[in-house]
Amino acid sequence: MSADRDMASMRRVIAMTGLSFPRGVLGPGAMDLAVAIGSGAPERAEVDVLVRQVAAAEWPVLQAPMAAALARADRPDDPADEHALTLAEEFAADTDPGNPLALALAERAGLDLAAVRARALDRLEVLADAQGADPGHPGALMALAAAAGRTVVDLLDLDPDDFGPEIAEYADQGTPDGTASPRLARATGDDGIRRWAREAIMALDVPAPSAALAAVRSMAEGPLPEDPAADVLWTAAVLVLAEDAIDTATAGDQRPGDAL
Questions:
Q1: Whole-angstrom Cα distance, residue 170 to residue 182?
Q2: Alpha-carbon gap, residue 108 to 111, rounded angstroms
Q3: Mean pLDDT score, 73-100
Q4: pLDDT tier at 259 (50, 70, 90 boundaries)?
């Protein structure tokens, strides 16, 4: 099978299984690839070089998790899909980061991060409009929290299921005394994930209105608060996850905890 056909097959497997490098742990090379992809008319040769660099950096660490994920994938009924999945399992056992599965996953990571950057830019432009009307207005402050929280969730690839029990407890508490949000932040915000969130926001580099980008970055500045409830960036992020979980549960006519 030719290299091009192998890559096409691996892209098919990725689409079929949802297999992906977890973008929250990717190195800076993946963001360089995303910037190149999102440039509008990227040079194919430049993208190919960056894809190989991302694969070389990430495959030694992520090969085993990718192989394990493939082993858990449902077996398809279509013979062509089954053949592609079997081929992917063979590539998953290959330590060479230049194998087609590693390259296809690196390419997918760049595409996903390019989409993350585009969504972040859209949010920051909306935030800039809110700030332009009245930066101190409660609506502008809510827009800032929403933009920062959603961008953290997107950059780190977080999901409500990551904090299912904590969010279910938050949903059951409600917020009559104003203590539910701080409890949720404390239950979920260990030092590691809060530093991770801050690093991701500080590294965000998109051609957004400067005041909006600066406002979001300001939420990640200064020493890490000892109390997670005092960490406005993490609180904004985990409340976004809680809102998503509650919306999902409401749409399915469930209790919020049942959807997690």
A1: 10
A2: 5
A3: 94
A4: very low
What mean pLDDT is predicted for residues 200-207? 91
- Which range marks the domain in which residue 57 is found? 3-110
Whether 82 and 177 share a structural domain: no
In a domain, 128, yes or no: no
What is the separation of C-alpha 219 from the centre of its chain, rounded to a whole number of angstroms?
Answer: 19
- 205: closest CA among 113, 108, 105? 113
CA distance 121 to 38: 12
pLDDT of 256 reads 56
User: Of 177, 153, 247, which Cα lies nearest the Cα of 256?
Assistant: 247
| Structural domain count of the chain | 2
Whether residue 141 is contained in a domain is answered as yes
Alpha helices in 134-251 (DSSP H): 138-156, 164-173, 180-188, 191-203, 210-218, 232-251
Same domain, 102 and 139: no
Same-domain pairing of 193 and 228 = yes
